[in-house]
Amino acid sequence: RATRWVYVEILKDKSATAAGGFLKRLIDKAPFTINKLLTD
Question: How far is CA 23 from the centre of its chain?
Fold first, then answer.
């Protein structure tokens, strides 16, 4: 359920649009399939 692979971006705002764009880029770059995303 965890991996040591890390993807980092530094964004200027915390908007929903920025978050959605981040997730799309994360999914495109990940070397594996993301089935679930858990947040705290």
Answer: 4
pTM above 0.90, yes or no: no
Residues 6+ apart with CB under 8 A from 9: 22, 25
**What are the pLDDT digits (tens) for 2-40?**
668 899 999 999 999 999 999 999 999 999 898 888 877
Token pair recorded at residue 17: 């649009």
Among candidate residues 39, 22, 27, 31, the one with its CA nearest the CA of residue 3 = 31
Q: How far apart are CA 27 and CA 15, in angstroms?
A: 19
